[in-house]
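ok, trying the design again with the full structure, not the truncated one.
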């Protein structure tokens, strides 16, 4: 239903330089997005592994000292008795887990939103033990002229949601973990509602139910409470497994327009729409019955993780046009263009 840009994919691993020698970029995907001084900024997740070496197992890891992280390589002979092959996601060496790929966030810039330049230097790099398995899936919300970045911090304790702040996309002030494990996909509403900040999140369900979208409120963006389950996966093929928040909600005259992702019974990820009440975002007004974007083209169906379209970043232009950036197969970044009236029309037709 949405118009894919003919230049897709806009960014692939070939466009990104590794953060150090011996590393190789496996994917550049799932970018947060913002408009800053007439420039479109993407905060892209860059996943890196190690260059293969015959007879050895090589995996990346981070070492920390005084709030600074450095990228390192664990390299051991394949027949090392202390080495255990876990699965494709990593190994265990002397009872410590190591992942086959780890991620940081890289900044990309574009005047037209299509052709991006990406500096070699990471923008958000792991800095302590809470991020020892990487930083993933940044989302950017501009609130009162400041850019608040939520991201997933991954460690041996699980994944948690952290917050950072920037005003110039040069200097970053980290605020720490705001949602403990096991919560991810946290995204902030771009303004206060009745003097409160709101956020959408996806806690991980263990036991009853399936992973769903929750809504929370805060007086200061750091302390969150009044948590409520907002949207649950429906028994339709596209939502069988789980759902989670996407980019920041868009304020319209009809309500808060939400784009969210869903994982179906065939392991494919797609995008859906929902509409929340402007004055009470805990109230769901409408929800699309079919996906507005699902894996259809080769770059969305074949890659590091097949059959994935996943968005956590968009830019709303002054005329209401929307540039929606999304990750493809945990491999590359693509763009669809739409507008607010079109998305609201889809909800109206399907309600």
């Amino acid at each position: 239903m949405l118009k894919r840009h003919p230049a897709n994919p806009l960014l692939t691993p070939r466009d990104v330089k590794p953060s150090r020698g011996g590393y190789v970029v496996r994917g550049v995907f799932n970018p947060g997005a913002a408009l800053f001084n007439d420039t479109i900024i993407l905060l892209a997740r860059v996943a890196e592994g190690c260059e293969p070496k015959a007879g050895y197992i090589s995996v990346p890891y981070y070492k920390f000292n005084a709030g600074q992280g450095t990228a390192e390589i664990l390299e051991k002979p394949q027949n090392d008795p202390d080495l255990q092959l876990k699965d494709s996601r990593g190994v265990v060496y002397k009872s410590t887990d190591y992942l086959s790929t780890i991620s940081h966030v890289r900044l990309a810039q574009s005047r037209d939103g299509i052709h991006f330049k990406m500096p070699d230097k990471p923008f958000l790099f792991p800095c302590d033990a809470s991020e020892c398995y990487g930083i993933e899936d940044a989302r950017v919300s501009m609130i009162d002229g400041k850019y608040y970045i939520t991201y997933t911090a991954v460690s041996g304790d699980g994944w948690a949601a952290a917050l950072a702040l920037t005003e110039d996309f040069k200097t970053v002030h980290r605020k720490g973990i705001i949602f403990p494990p096991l919560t991810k996909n946290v995204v902030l509403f771009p303004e206060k509602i009745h003097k409160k900040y709101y956020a959408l999140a996806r806690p991980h369900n263990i036991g009853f139910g399936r992973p769903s979208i929750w809504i929370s409120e805060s007086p200061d963006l750091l302390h969150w409470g009044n948590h409520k389950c907002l949207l649950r996966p429906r028994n339709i093929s596209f939502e069988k497994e789980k759902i989670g928040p996407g980019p920041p909600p868009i304020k319209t005259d009809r309500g808060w327009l939400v784009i969210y992702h869903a994982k179906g019974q065939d392991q494919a990820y797609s995008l859906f729409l929902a509409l929340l009440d402007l004055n009470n975002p805990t109230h769901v007004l409408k929800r699309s019955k079919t996906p507005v974007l699902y894996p259809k083209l080769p770059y969305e169906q074949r890659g590091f993780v097949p059959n994935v379209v996943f968005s956590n970043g968009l830019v709303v232009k002054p005329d209401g046009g929307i540039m929606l950036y999304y990750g493809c197969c945990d491999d590359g970044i693509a763009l669809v263009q739409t507008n607010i009236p079109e998305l609201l029309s889809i909800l109206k037709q399907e309600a």
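Keeping the full-length input from now on. The helical segments are 298-301, 340-350.
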